[in-house]
Design goal:
single chain; about 190 residues; alpha+beta; three-stranded mixed beta sheet; two-stranded antiparallel ribbon; 5 helices
Length: about 190
């Protein structure tokens, strides 16, 4: 399972747990009878008694532990958020020049050239290209937006046979695997009079 799938499953489970807990507390607050094992017994019961809330307040370790736990939780949440939002775009591609030193090609330059070459194909109105993988073995994720009357198989064949092959040969790569998504532009219905 990919990272995105794991993130969605974890967020879904946390959301369901919070929804169930909040719904149960709301139901008890509105007068529903809770089961005997539930944390509070009625609408006028509190979740934490005064004794439970002030139990550790006098201990010297309590507030540093609470603040430390909250800080660690905040930092982990921030790290997770940046990991999710960060696009895993390949910054540069290493090209074997035959002299042992090699050369570096900017990833965005190759993405831009591949997108321009893809949109030059028949029926492709827009191409979104993303390089990912390793610098020595890049891969392409492409989204091609097609005009409504274009044959998707022909557009895919043109992209792989012309634009992708041209990029692979230009960068002197042994292979350039690609995942291509095709989307058709929607057009308005024509008015008949």
């Amino acid at each position: 399972m990919r990272t995105g799938g794991v993130n969605r499953v974890l967020l879904g489970l946390v959301g369901l747990a919070l929804l169930a807990l909040g719904g149960a507390v709301l139901a008890v607050g509105l007068g529903a009878r809770p089961p005997s094992w539930w944390i509070h017994t009625g609408p006028h019961d509190v979740l934490l008694t005064r004794a439970e809330r002030t139990r550790w307040r006098g201990a010297g370790w309590w507030w540093p532990a609470v603040i430390g736990a909250l800080a660690v939780t905040f930092l982990l949440a921030l790290w997770w958020l940046t990991a999710v939002l960060r696009r895993h775009r390949l910054a540069e591609v290493r090209i074997d020049t035959g002299d042992g030193r090699g050369a570096l090609l900017r990833g965005r330059a190759l993405e831009s050239a591949l997108a321009q070459d893809a949109t030059a194909g028949p029926g492709v109105t827009h191409a979104g290209i993303l390089l990912h993988g390793r610098a020595t073995r890049p891969a392409v994720s492409a989204t091609l937006q097609l005009e409504p009357d274009v044959d998707p198989a022909a557009a895919l064949t043109d992209f792989t046979g012309r634009a992708l092959a041209h990029a692979r040969e230009s960068a002197e790569l042994a292979s350039l695997p690609a995942e291509v998504r095709l989307r058709a532009l929607r057009h308005r219905a024509e008015r008949v009079t």
